[in-house]
Amino acid sequence: MQSQARRFAWKLLTSLGNLCIVILFHEYLSASLLTMIESAVPSASTTPIRVAVVGATGYAGQELVRLLARHPHAVLTAATASQATSTPRRLPGLARIWEGEVVPLDPPAVAANADVVFLALPEAASAEMGAAFLAAGRRVIDLSGAFRLRDDAARAKWYPATAAMPEGVVYGLSEFAGTSLAGARLVSCPGCYPTASLLALQPLAEAGLLKDGADVIVDAKSGVSGAGKAPSDRTHFCENHGSVAAYGLFGHRHTAEMMQSLGREVTFTPHLVPLDRGLLSTIYARLRAGVSAAQISDTLHAAHARSPFVRLTGDALPEIKHVAHTNFCDIGWKVDEATGRIILVSVIDNLLKGAAGQAVQNFNLLVGLDERAGLL
How much is the pTM? Predict the structure, then answer.
């Protein structure tokens, strides 16, 4: 009996030993295979990219600082005010996110310590600073309208401070700019109203689904932050609260921007609504004879199949609260096939997808990163 017990124990120990060897060998192979895979896939960026924000005290500028301070592939080396005489200050809302200080504007110091410079300035200042940073060999991402219009006459009318367009400017509507951003020296980020409107309209225009010669009407509402941080009678709480007001009829510069991308006339009416952030664009258009609701859906889904920040909702119309504090653009629509009419509703956060978020999305594409980096 003792001999049988010893033989059984020996067999058990031998089996357990063999099992341990198999497990250890399996773990070794798994680790080796994982190492081989990781070494075969290049990292998007091995060294953080040095970035600076010029105009960091405005609403969009502060959002840029917040996003870039937490970006996995960027290091924020400077955040400056828009003036050289500004007093250094901290941003209390960013405590424990970014502990730096917004310093007076010093272009040579910014250029010496940044590879990519974000400009969150009024257009006249951006026209000057953009050219200066390009001359210093830096790549620029501009949130103003200074470099958006290609036509000299249109630019002279709406952005007269930009006398000439520098080489290497790309209009940065991220979803449609594509690979052209990789070679850009300066990325001109679209305005908030054109961003929401063009993401919905441009695929239909490019597919030839809109009726020739028919007017496109864009009726849009934006929160007060879209008017910028400088106070005015229009943005005063007592004037804005409990009211909705149209402004800029036949005189808003974003009209030229939309017409440039669509290649057709646009009637644009913006409205100021008592919200701190958010933008809703309701778009009315006529369709070519015979265009169906299914064609509209197919076209929009095809155009945005690779757009991580565009969410198509179909006939479930989106709302501002669905996109607030995100970089998403939600687009819904209804088609009346009997009359050939379409109404689209597009919503964004004007400070993110309409400004800072889109700028960071463009930065990602500019330097070869996943466009979602730092935004999701």
Answer: 0.86
